[in-house]
């Protein structure tokens, strides 16, 4: 597969640093790779001479498997690294860890790290292409790309569409990347959740802020529901999960009141019965599984296009 266009950057550190043309190029490339994934033979030799290291300093299931599958579908050589079973436990620094891996002739790095900005730091010290698979509560660019790609598949272009992001906005890297991506594609964005889980000054990013779930559901064409990230919460931001579900959870009864269908999304993992009920997550209007499928195609596109910058 060949493309004349190229990304404007050698890394994917965040949606903030991509142009609309970059996003469109990734989508166009992902559509081609999605066709490949639906063939009997799901592999292409595009990255046959490329070695990719997956460095995960935080736990992950969907993102890690999605990236690894994308790399193998492109015929890349893959090295997997887990901080829990590495020399990081012995006090080795991030830079030493990565440089040791790169000395084994690794070309690209996919990294998840709990520290916001870790990828920027790394990009200033190593030559390999870097893809941010999540940095703390900052950004998760490939999740935002696959979310927007999935939205466009379902509703067409996002220009003028109303997208509401529900839940724990304060601790979510997905929310920030989604806001940047959707705004660049012309969508109107609203965030909705308890006041304690909405960051101060988020309206400066050009989004509406609401604490009323019913009103936000009436307003939106697409609802992207985020989980409560209890592992990032060092204090209690609401009285109980039961109370959160009662006042901010998305249920079928709420959707039935709308009198029209809206698209339901969730980046996973789902806390069923808390931010969303099972009958909503599994409904005909949910595209949650399509998001997972599209994640592989989007990550194949990102890897392929970055490899072209080498």
Describe the SSE topology.
Elements: H1 20-37, E1 51-56, H2 62-73, E2 77-82, H3 94-102, E3 108-113, H4 118-123, E4 129-135, H5 141-155, E5 162-166, H6 173-184, E6 188-192, E7 208-210, H7 213-219, E8 222-225, H8 241-248, H9 252-258, E9 263-265, H10 278-281, H11 288-307
Q: What would the principal axes of the Cα set say about the shape?
A: globular
- Biggest sheet, open or closed, and with what strands and sense? 5 strands, parallel
At the third CATH level, what is the topology name of the largest domain?
A: Rossmann fold
Strand order of the largest sheet: 7-6-5-8-9
CATH H-tier superfamily of the largest domain:
Aspartate/ornithine carbamoyltransferase
Rg, rounded, reads: 19 Å
How many H/I helices?
11
Number of domain units: 2
% residues in beta strands: 5-15%
Which parts are unreliable, with pLDDT below 50 for 5 consecutive residues or more? Answer: none
Order of helices and strands: HEHEHEHEHEHEEHEHHEHH
Distance between the termini: 16 Å
What is the arithmetic mean of pLDDT?
91
Helix content: 25-40%
CATH architecture label of the largest domain: 3-Layer(aba) Sandwich
Number of E strands? 9
Broad CATH class of the largest domain: Alpha Beta
């Amino acid at each position: 597969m060949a493309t004349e266009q190229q990304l404007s950057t050698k890394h994917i550190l965040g949606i903030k640093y991509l142009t609309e043309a970059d996003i469109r190029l990734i989508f166009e490339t992902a559509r081609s790779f999605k066709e490949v994934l639906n063939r009997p033979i799901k592999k292409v030799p595009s990255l046959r001479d490329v070695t990719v290291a997956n460095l995960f300093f935080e736990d992950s299931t969907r993102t890690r498997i999605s990236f690894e599958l994308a790399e193998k579908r492109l015929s890349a050589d893959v090295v997997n690294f887990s901080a829990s079973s590495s020399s990081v436990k012995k006090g080795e620094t991030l830079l030493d860890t990565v440089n040791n891996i790169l000395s084994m002739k690794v070309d690209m790095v996919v990294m998840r790290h709990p520290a916001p900005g870790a990828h920027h730091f790394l990009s200033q010290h190593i030559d390999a292409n870097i893809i941010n698979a999540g940095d703390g509560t900052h950004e998760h660019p490939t999740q935002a790309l696959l979310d927007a790609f999935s939205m466009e598949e379902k509703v067409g272009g996002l220009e003028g569409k109303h997208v509401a992001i529900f839940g724990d906005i304060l601790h979510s890297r997905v929310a920030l990347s989604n806001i940047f991506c959707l705004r660049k594609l012309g969508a109107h964005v609203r965030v909705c959740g308890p006041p304690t889980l909405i960051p101060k000054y988020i309206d400066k990013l050009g989004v509406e802020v609401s604490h009323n779930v019913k009103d936000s559901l009436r307003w939106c064409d697409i609802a992207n529901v985020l989980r409560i990230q209890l592992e990032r919460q060092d204090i209690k931001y609401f009285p109980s999960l039961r109370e959160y579900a009662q006042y901010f959870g998305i249920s079928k009864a709420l959707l039935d009141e709308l009198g029209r269908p809206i698209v339901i999304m969730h980046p996973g993992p789902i806390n069923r019965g808390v931010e969303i009920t099972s009958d909503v997550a599994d409904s005909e209007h949910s595209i949650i599984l399509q998001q997972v499928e599209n994640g592989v195609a989007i990550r194949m596109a990102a890897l392929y296009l970055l490899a072209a910058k080498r």
